[in-house]
Design a protein that fits this description.
Elements (H helix, E strand, L loop, with lengths): L3 E10 L6 E11 L4 E5 L6 H8 L7 E6 L2 E2 L5 H11 E4 L11 H12 L4 H14 L15 H12 L6 E5 L7 H16 L3 E6 L2 H4 L4 E6 L2 E7 L5
Parallel strand pairs: 3-8, 3-9, 6-7, 7-8
Antiparallel strand pairs: 1-2, 1-4, 4-5, 9-10
The protein binds adenosine-5'-diphosphate (2 copies).
The site of one adenosine-5'-diphosphate (ADP) has 7 residues, from helix 5 and helix 6.
Protein name: ATP-binding cassette domain-containing protein
Keywords: ATP-binding, Nucleotide-binding, Transport
GO molecular function, one term: ATP binding
Length: 231
């Protein structure tokens, strides 16, 4: 069971007038199999928090410990390799590569991480596409899929290297209610398979469908509530 701990994380973006403190002394622990919402208004520091968690950006101070190892001890290339194997990332605007088919979009992260023998990757990718119910669209280009289908493809891509943690930045922000619920349903299934989902949202109703709601206001974690009996 992999633990993910943030200890007193502060992030200051420098500017010409003292800087913007986007995150102030955030301390959080994530466990395997949790479905977590990070709830906050625009500009409250949600994306900054996700960037710290995924090692896309580094904190100004504080420590991030993953599986008993401090992330700041990793070089830039080691951090990239770590992210590839341990964190799946889902964006609001899908960010599929438009010139690759859906199947090729899923195989690409496997190629980058060499996580499976070359000959197995296509079948693993097809299996993931079936799990998110778009197997029949494998050979289409992203532009030929609906928004909801593209986001499901992006979820399959995030699962490509079987990472224990998935971080999703407003994954339903560009979807209608039907497709937003479909995404949450898939996340729920993934947590049942032992994945940890950390989902950023400003939608309170959506947050209520998770196990734990962390509220952030002006860079400060103001509450951290478990909304179901998950033990
Ligand atoms: P949210 O995701 O909740 O909308 P962000 O984490 O994007 O919030 O932003 C938090 C604060 O940090 C905001 O005041 C924003 O303007 C500022 N900020 C975010 N990214 C940068 C950056 N790269 N450079 C400077 N300021 C930034
Ligand atoms: P596919 O099987 O091609 O992935 P979907 O899973 O998107 O298709 O759709 C499954 C069913 O849900 C279809 O009957 C479709 O009409 C319906 N549906 C799809 N998108 C929406 C939506 N935005 N609102 C309501 N119903 C939808």
């Amino acid at each position: 069971e992999k633990q993910f701990n943030l200890k007193n994380i502060t992030k200051v973006y420098p500017d010409h007038s003292g800087g913007t403190t986007a995150l102030k002394n955030a301390t959080l622990n994530f466990k395997t199999g949790e479905f977590i919402a990070i709830l906050g208004k625009s500009g409250s520091g949600k994306s900054t928090l996700l960037n710290m968690l995924s090692g896309i950006d580094r904190p100004t101070s504080g420590e991030i410990i993953y599986d008993n190892r401090p992330l700041h001890s990793l070089t830039e290339s080691a951090l990239t390799a770590w992210r590839g194997k341990n964190i799946g990332i889902i964006f609001q605007f899908f960010q599929l590569i438009p010139t690759l088919t859906i199947l090729e979009n899923i195989i690409l992260p496997m190629d980058l991480c060499s996580s499976y023998p070359t000959g197995n990757r296509k079948n693993i990718a097809l299996d993931l596409l079936n799990q998110v119910e778009i197997g029949e669209h494998a050979n289409k280009l992203p532009v030929d899929l609906s928004g909801g289908q593209q986001q499901r493809a992006a979820i399959a891509r995030a699962l490509a290297n079987n990472p224990p943690f998935i971080v999703a930045d407003e994954p339903t922000g560009n979807l209608d209610t039907y497709n937003a619920n479909k995404v949450v349903e898939l996340f729920r299934k993934m947590t049942d398979d032992g994945k940890t989902i950390i989902m950023v949202t400003h939608d309170t109703e959506l947050a209520k469908l998770t196990d734990r709601i962390i509220t952030i206001e002006d860079g400060i974690i103001t509450s951290d509530l478990t909304s179901r009996c998950i033990n």
